[in-house]
Amino acid sequence: MLVSRSIDSRGFLRGLLSSALLLTTVIGAPALACAIAEGTNADGSPKWTSRQGALTEAAAIQGSRYQEFCGLVTPSDAVAYATTDRPTAETYIDGRFWVFTRDLSLGAGGSVTIHSLLSGGGNSQMDIVIQQGTSGLELVATTPGGNSPAIPIDSTASPYRGWHEVDFTYNQSGTGTGSVVIQLDNDTTETISGLTNSTIEDAWLGIIDTTGATGNMRFDSYEIVRQGDASELVLCDANADGSINPGDVLRANAEVAELLPPPGLASGQADCNGDGDVNPGDVLFINAIVSGLAPNPNL
Predict the structure, then answer these.
(1) pTM of the predicted model, to two decimals?
(2) pLDDT per residue over 217-231, tens digit each?
């Protein structure tokens, strides 16, 4: 996550925070970083296994197996992605992540492939693609057996639409009975069914393929699980406790004031106004939601 800060905002927000004890009680311990490289975290859980291209690591917390919480930043005009080979002959994968599209520009016919699930032979079994449609950006899932209908990406719902939550479910079954489900922002859902697909061995996240794209892209809070459902993301939930409450105001305050490092979920969670930074504007919007003066963007 990239965070814009200024001397003025730090002084303003430090004045809003009455004590370090309050921060420790409400917000909890600082987060730990996660490198995009081979190896393990301090708790023994694996990191991303490799990277391709010019990835920049964003702030992240440690994740357990199949929970790669690393945040990624990459230009959209060149191939650059992180890989994990944790899946092993998986017949079911459920996952989700944040993607920031406000800085992305696509020409006519342009597209970026941002996520792939691959078989042991290195063949993609599901790609998630952002493409330029007739009325703006669209999200689509592609498979060797067919593609999903395109889902329009709403980037006009100010102030919230900078980050978008992408959810997906992959099912490998018998001949002609596999399926892929994709959902955008906990709303529109599309399904590809009747697939003859393979088990999954690798997952890639970032810019896997690109045509006619400019601008940076950001990803955060990537999680895949091999049973059950990946946990739900909540926009403006700065402290990642599953709801928007006064603790989120304090958490966002602390990040802008540099009193605490941002947690792994901060990019998509605390950037409530969707401008790509965690700044005083986010504190104001979160406070307005808590106070009932602004609508909850998750409803």
Answers:
(1) 0.77
(2) 888 778 888 888 887
